[in-house]
Design brief:
Blueprint (H helix, E strand, L loop, with lengths): L1 H9 L25 E4 L2 H12 L4 H15 L9 E7 L5 E5 L14 E2 L2 E2 L2 H4 L11 H12 L9 H9 L1 E2 L2 H9 L1 H4 L3 H7 L12 E2 L2 H13 L2 H4 L2 H11 L10 H5 L4 E3 L2 E5 L2 E5 L6 H12 L4 H4 L4 H21 L10 H4 L2 H8 L32 E8 L5 E9 L7 E2 L2 E2 L12 E2 L2 E2 L17 E4 L5 E8 L3 H14 L5 H6 L3 E2 L4 E5 L5 H10 L3 E5 L4 E8 L2 E6 L6 E4 L1
Parallel strand pairs: 20-21
Antiparallel strand pairs: 1-11, 1-24, 2-3, 2-12, 3-8, 4-5, 6-7, 9-10, 10-17, 11-12, 13-14, 15-16, 17-18, 18-22, 19-20, 22-23
């Protein structure tokens, strides 16, 4: 109960060149230093920090944060979705856990076809057809068994209290409910929670209580993860998906019972003597972030600095090349032979880098042929926006970087036991073949859709953790994470200032530049003069990080968001 007292009290005072060899980490180098949690909402960060104060691990804290976000950030993540967890212990060992959702067994390549044609994303998102089997709870159980220090039930306490006793409607949640009412208000249970009798979102500051979710979380805390996948909850998910008034689709209790989270091999590479580790397929995060960085390594980014259009031109060109390979080759490695080693091979990336002209944009960024690649085609898919990233570090020096998602805002709009179900299957390509070739990310039963989530841990040349970072925002996640790492390593910025840098996103032949950023118009004009097609886009980004500076942990949260960090 002490954690609940601390949790309630704390809510009243919340703050807003060639690569060098990597030295082996000294075990326990950060041991004894108070831990910290950074998350998209300070109340969720406090839920995690409460676990650290109880003697919990970084994994325990991350679990409590994920559960709290299920309650207070229902538009973005939660137990109705999936995620990726990257863990580094004090000895330097990296483990990654895959909790990505899976398609039901009945899913085929024409899953998102209607009248013989691919559906529009807006038609495919709401209702049952977009729902994948949720993976977060199994992922939590897998990670907790390996790294948890507190009992399973203990990490649920803050989220249960938030759902039972209520939390204040935040401006961001209110704006999401207002702009996304077609999905957010789709389910009658959701309308009753978040909207008034007039159909409008409840006012900012309204106390939101979710007794159904509080009761279900209490059951899950007592009965364990298996109870999510077998029994009444699984039957309720299958019935909701199959019986949806919009886009009903066959999902069975057997689809849910057969779900497994998986331990995966981490994908690691080096950049200027720093070791960058992240999540492998079905995530495209680590391979694409590493490609962006490694292709820039021959350029003196430090000399150019963050205000130089030439620097951002180089970043854009490297992104274009990396995203081209991502679109062709990345998918679920259990179904497709993804050439991870080839995509991250230094010699291959050095050859790709030579395509970059320091003064002028490529007409088109070509897809490469990395070692081990098979002939595949790029597909047609949408990007996710209902995502949240959080980082936890503990007193033993262990670090967790975890990204969780329900895909779009409010996912499918369907609600079970007080939580939203994801619309993750819209991250698949809507077509199975293109240019006479199979699409790597096509829909198949039991398959996991490709993801842009990029939870990352950066180790310095001394072998110690320097930065743990991740972001939300669909395919822009990769761009945000790469930019933050460049900001810290090349431009000697704090993690906070690196996250605050304007976001440039270049997934193809168009460069998207954040609107309203300092010198945005000047930067756009300079990039246009270099041959780029530039489009300004409004900000809507959300990154979180923790860095090791001066013998202690320092938190960072995107100033565009409501995020914050809380120390142990």
């Amino acid at each position: 109960m002490r954690s609940l007292v601390l949790f309630a009290a704390a809510l009243l005072s919340l703050p807003g060149c060639a690569s060098a060899p990597i030295a082996p980490a000294a075990a326990g180098a950060h041991a004894g230093v108070p831990g910290m949690v950074s998350a998209a909402d300070p109340r969720a960060a406090e839920a995690g920090a409460a676990m650290l104060r109880e003697g919990g691990s970084a994994t325990d804290a991350a679990m409590a944060t994920l559960l709290a976000l299920t309650v207070i950030e229902p538009q973005s993540s939660g137990i109705g979705g999936g995620g990726f967890l990257v863990h580094r212990d004090a000895t330097g060992a990296i483990e990654t856990f895959d909790g990505r959702e899976t398609a039901p067994a009945a899913a085929t390549g024409n899953w998102f076809f209607r009248d013989g044609k691919p559906m529009a994303f807006g038609d495919a998102q709401p209702g049952g057809r977009s729902v994948g089997v949720p993976g977060n709870v199994r992922m939590m159980a897998l990670a907790h068994a390996a790294q948890g220090r507190l009992p399973w039930r203990a990490v649920f306490a803050p989220a249960i209290a938030l759902a039972r006793d209520g939390f204040a409607m935040s401006p961001r949640l209110h704006a999401s409910l207002d702009g996304g009412r077609a999905t957010g208000a789709l389910d009658p249970a959701a309308r009753a929670l978040y909207y008034g009798a007039d159909g409008e979102p409840l006012p900012v500051g309204t106390a939101i209580r979710n007794p159904a979710l509080a009761a279900y979380l209490a059951q899950l805390a007592e009965r364990g993860a298996d109870s999510f996948y077998v029994g009444p909850n699984a039957q309720a998910i299958a019935a909701k998906v199959s019986g949806s008034a919009i886009n009903p689709a066959p999902m069975t209790p057997g689809d849910i019972a057969s779900y497994d989270a998986k331990a995966r091999d981490a994908v690691c590479g080096t950049y200027r003597g720093y070791r960058i580790c992240g999540m492998g397929p079905p995530s495209s995060g680590a391979t694409t972030v590493l490609a962006i960085l490694k292709q820039l390594e021959r350029f003196d980014m430090a000399a150019l600095g963050p205000d130089s259009p030439a620097a951002w031109h180089l970043i854009a060109e490297s992104m274009r090349l990396a995203y081209a390979d991502r679109g062709r080759y990345l998918a679920d490695g259990d179904f497709v032979a993804v050439p991870v080693a080839g995509l991250t091979d230094p010699a291959y990336l050095a050859a790709r880098s030579r395509l970059i002209d320091a003064g002028h944009a490529m007409a088109t960024a070509p897809v490469g042929t990395p070692p081990g690649a098979q002939p595949l085609a790029a597909g047609v898919h949408a990007t996710e926006h209902g995502t949240s990233h959080f980082v936890a570090v503990d007193r033993w020096g262990d670090v967790v970087s975890l990204t969780s998602t329900i895909e779009s805002g409010f996912g499918s709009g369907l609600m079970v036991n007080g939580y939203y179900l994801n619309n993750e299957l819209t991250d698949f390509s809507f077509v199975a073949q293109a240019d006479g070739r199979r699409v790597a990310n096509r829909v198949e039963g039991g398959k996991r859709p490709r993801s842009s989530m990029a939870p990352t841990i950066v180790t310095g040349p001394d072998g110690e953790v320097r930065l743990a970072v991740g972001a939300a925002g669909g395919a822009t996640i990769i761009a945000q994470v790469a930019k933050a790492i460049i900001g810290v390593i090349d431009w000697d910025l704090s993690a906070q200032d690196a996250i605050a840098l304007p976001v440039l996103y270049a997934p193809g032949d168009t460069v998207y530049l954040e609107q309203g950023s300092a010198h945005g118009a000047t930067m756009a004009a300079a990039l246009t003069a270099m041959g780029h097609a530039v489009v300004m886009r409004p900000p809507g980004f959300k990154a979180n990080a923790i860095e090791w500076v001066g013998g202690g942990w320092r938190g960072a949260a995107d100033p565009r968001s409501e995020g914050g960090w809380v120390a142990e």
